[in-house]
Every structure is written in structure tokens, then in C-alpha cells.
Amino acid sequence: MAATAKAAANSNIDAKLAALRTDLETLQKDIKGLAGEVGGVASNRANEALRSAEKLAERAYDLAEETANQATAYGAKAAEDIEAWTNENAETLRETVREQPLTSLAVAVGAGAFLALLLRR
Fold first, then answer.
1. Is the dihedral of CA 73, 74, 80, 83 positive or negative?
2. What are the distances in angstroms from CA 59 to CA 13, 49, 53, 56, 100?
3. How far apart are CA 63 and CA 120, in angstroms?
4. Domain locations in the chain?
5. 3-state SS assignment for residue 121
6. Do residues 97 and 104 make contact, with C-beta atoms less than 8 angstroms apart?
7. Fewest beta carbons within 10 Å, which of 3, 61, 65, 111?
8. CA 79, CA 117: separation in Å to the nearest integer?
9. Exposed, middle or buried: residue 3 (CB in 10 Å: 0-12, 13-18, 19+)?
10. What is the pLDDT of residue 95?
11. What is the CA radius of gyration of the chain?
12. Which residues lie below 8 Å from residue 40, measured CB to CB, with a gap of 6+?
């Protein structure tokens, strides 16, 4: 009888071990499936973040291009205004220099010295 009880206990242990192996295999499969799902969700989130970053970069590029175009237009307008003012006042300046050459020379030297002082700093 002792041998029968021992065989029954061994059989019971073997059955429990087999059930435990089956449970572990099922758990491994579930964990692998869960890891795959988590990886899929993470991949989807990463793709969404990448698309958002691309949209943001495109918007920033568009804004920078628009600002550069506006600055170029403003610079061109300022250059036109300066050119027009220069053309309008060039003849008056020539007449003044012809009438008062020493005064004009003194003003030019003073303005040059003043600009030199400003640029040295």
C-alpha cells in the first residue's frame, strides 16, 4: 500500500507539474501578446507624435518664410524711400556745397569724426 500511495502522490505531483507547465506556457503566450499590443500602441503614439512634429515644423517654416518675405518687402520699400529722398535732395545738397564749400567740408569732417567715435565703441 505504501507503494501505491507513493505512486499516487507522484502521479498527483506530476499532474500538478503538468498543469503548472501548461499555466506557465499560457502565461508566456499572454505576456508575448501583451508585449506586442503595447509595442503597437507605442508605435502608434510615436507615429502620431511624429506627424504632429512634422505639422508644427511645416507651420514654423511657413511662418519663417512669410516673415522673411515681409522683411524683404519692407527692406525694398525702405531702399526705395531712401533713394527717392536722396534723388530729391541731391541737387539741393550740390548747390549748398558749391555755395559754401568750407562749411560743407567742416560738417562732413564733424559727421565722420562722430561716426568714428560711435563705431569704435
1. negative
2. 68, 15, 10, 5, 58
3. 37
4. 2-120
5. coil
6. yes
7. 3
8. 26
9. exposed
10. 87
11. 44
12. none
What the block records as the C-alpha cell of 113 is 569724426
Q: For the stretch 27-55, what's the b/e string if a residue is b when 16 or more beta carbons lie within 10 angstroms of its beta carbon?
A: eeeeeeeeeeeeeeeeeeeeeeeeeeeee
Question: If you search the block for the grid coordinates 518687402, which residue do you land on?
Answer: 73
Identity of residue 4: T
In this prediction the pTM is: 0.43
Cell matching residue 118? 560711435
User: What amino acid occupies position 112?
Assistant: G
Q: Which amino acid is at 68?
A: A
Is 104 within 8 Å of 96 (Cβ atoms)?
Answer: yes
In this structure, what C-alpha cell is assigned to residue 69? 518675405
Helix residue ranges, H only, the chain: 2-99, 101-120
Interval 30-43: pLDDT, tens: 877 777 777 777 77
Residue pair 80/73 in contact (Cβ under 8 Å)? The answer is: no
